User: Fold this.
Amino acid sequence: MTISADHTAPKTTQAEPVPEQSGDTYLAGAAAEAVRKFGITAEDYMLPARHQIQMVDQDGNLKHHSEQGAEPGHEYPLPGDDELLAAYEQLVVGRRVNDQNSALVRQGRMAVYPSSHGQEACQVASALCLAEGDWMFPTYRDAVAVMARGVDPIEVMTIFRGDWHGGYDPLKHKVGIQCTPLTTQLLHAVGVAHAAKLRGEDTVVLAMCGDGATSEGDFHEALNFAAVFHLPVIFFVQNNQYAISVPLAHQSVAPSLAHKAVGYGMAGERVDGNDVVALLAVLDRAVKLAREGSGPLLVEAHTYRMQAHTNADDATRYRQDSEVAQWLARDPLSRMRTYLFGRGLLDDDGEARIAEKAEAVATQLRNGLGEDVPVDPQDLFKYVFSTPTPQLKEQSALLADELARDAAGTSTPTEAPE
Amino acid sequence: MSPTITTSSEANGNISSATARAAASAGATAEAARPQPVTMAKALNAAMADAMRADESVLVFGEDVGMLGGVFRITDGLMKSFGEQRCFDTPLAESGIVGMAVGMAINGMRPVIEMQFDAFAYPAFEQIVSHVAKMHNRTKGRVKLPLVIRVPYAGGIGGVEHHCDSSESYYAHTAGLKVYTPATVADAYTMLREAIDSDDPVMFMEPKKLYWAKDLVDLERLHEDYEAKADRGTSTEGRAAVARSGTDATLIAYGPSVPTALAAAAAAAEEGRSLEVIDIRTIVPFDDETVSASVRKTGRAVVIAEAHGFASVSSEIVARVQERCFHYLAAPIRRVTGFDVPYPAPKLEHYYLPGVDRILDAVDDLQWED
Assistant:
């Protein structure tokens, strides 16, 4: 995916032959082609572009091809109009979902919500780039991506409503559970891809994590396993600049997170994470390459967490308002709206229709999360194993007995007396 | 994390049972199979080979399990027999091995993975506790993880540091994990087959000091019996075995401590005391019924385990027996366990390990004079 323009290898001459032991896994498919076409080394191919790939700037102007940071090998075709419109619709819905959920938390109708406000372009693109048979492995902040993949919003929010640790069926939607322990899900993505590859299926797996998570050991193990087994996994890092309060500079001093790809023998790319056009272009190509057998790829998207980590966090303790204001100007929705209006792909009527769809989802969330859904205490014991053990049956009976006495009004309250 | 223990010469001489069995099924079926001395290592190897033959989704991977056949040779010949897609070496990263196995199990496979040594499994602890144990519950049973994590564990082999931990209590304490540990060659075969067939994740704890212990076993017969079993998959789960019948007191043991308990019972018999020995077999799920029935019969019990006694499986067993058998007990239940010290260096380990004398002393202490 990558070629560095300032690299020492002259572009007009053939690259040195790659050593024998590098072999076909090192230089499969697209890499081999790039090496032939541009006369570069395999290492050059793996390096990200010198600058983030950006196709629509923050004012909504399409950048000329030569301005997109596009060195040879980093030239991405503009996604089709239909895909851009679909993306815009999802952006608007995603923003509405984020803000509605945050409001529900403030009203005390939901325990917690880690908002992806400001990161909606990453959320939307990570869902739209995948085919139906592909898999996604999201984090706790990726609820909008999971909804954009087609999972029912209420099922997605169950985990935050607090009646169970997960609400949707991962197998039905081919979406892993929203994962809290950082980067542990990247290895599950690797395993899903490995199983698919062994069966000869052309499944691609998108594995998501944030910038802070790249410090975790499982990030390293997942990238290395995917590379060694040459698996179709796209590691998609949403670099939103903060891990709760700790800025990226305290996580890594690598030239960029995308550069980490080279150490594993895979290609990396970096992209403006608030430019949904560039995100779609880069991720679409990554999916295509992975499906064709390129092995894993690493994509880093530069974006910003506009709100605090969760409602329990106070972002004013660790970052300046001026920094937030800078990123507000780079908002992923407004630039896309300007661009689509400018292209004549969107008008007031179209915008109204999209707003209506977004409002319908918000209403669904308000109604669904406002309901007091009854929980069944016996569910505690049902799912620990395929069949409850005798010990779990005993404990289940104990609780049933307690509840029966509660219902009969013969129990002693557990609460301490006033 | 390369192993620093040399495996025994028997290990190096262990032929590929998969290959041998393939040859046997190819031609010599008419030859009447007879029980013969078989090691636990060979039985475990045969169990994996038979499971791989029975089900294409069974995969074996880990560190050095492919070409080498594992540092204990438990996976010997599997790569050769089933190909590099079904038995393969991974990069040296335990969390990666377990995490990848979780993904494979999500996507239709039945991985059987090896943690090279007990203490080498700790880097994978997060994957095991946070995902392997919880996936079924978190998804309300929609995602099953039919995954076996094989752990060569416990001491008695003169191993260096980090190679002899009794780590079973960590796993038994975690809701959502099944914990199996065989003590006999025949159980090793059947229990590993059942672990692989289980739809729940199983921590399969292999007592490494018993790898080269031999029993008279007919592996072909065990295989046929297993395939024909009506209760296939569950004949040992949650079912303790009465390893030796007796009337005066019950010795409760599992894994590496079962042979020690049997030796103690044999010695006690010479002194005229009849001890029953219970082999727990699966720590989770636990067979309260068999254990309680024995203690109610004898009225006295000693729990034996190599692991540290504090906050351990052995303390759990004492608590459970006391709760269920209090009025039948003639004496407090005693424990003979490892001391609460880090596993000792080879020249000191015999002081640490529960031995026959320490067990007999505990039995003597069960208030016989009352």
